[in-house]
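Lab notebook page, bench 4
Experiment: in silico fold of construct C2
Operator: M.H.
Input chain length: 117 residues
Purpose: comparison with the prior construct
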Amino acid sequence: MTTTTVAAAGGAAGHNAAEVVNPAAEDRYWRDSYASRPGYVSGYSYDDDYAPAYRLGYDARGRTKGAFNEAERDLSVEWERIKGKSRLTWEQAKTAARDAWHHIERALPGDADGDGR
């Protein structure tokens, strides 16, 4: 967890995830690390292919309570609407979106989504 990614997590107690997400910091984090993450497809770019999937994950966690699996159906529909030029299928994008979701989850105090992590 970095303080550039989240508002100081200790100070986030009692606040929802939307107050913790820093979209610019999240974008920098994923831009720097996407090619080393699970599911990376060689030759696919951050801007065109992966950015929308990571953004979906961290934005959705910022506005949604509960676990990723509970939101997955809605996220798959949203992916088809927002993916733009991305060549990722939902199954591929889901890996990135889940990764970003859990990156925000880990920054929250306690077990905010109740998944035991």
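Observations: The radius of gyration is 14 Å. Residues 43-111 form one domain.
Next step: discuss at group meeting.
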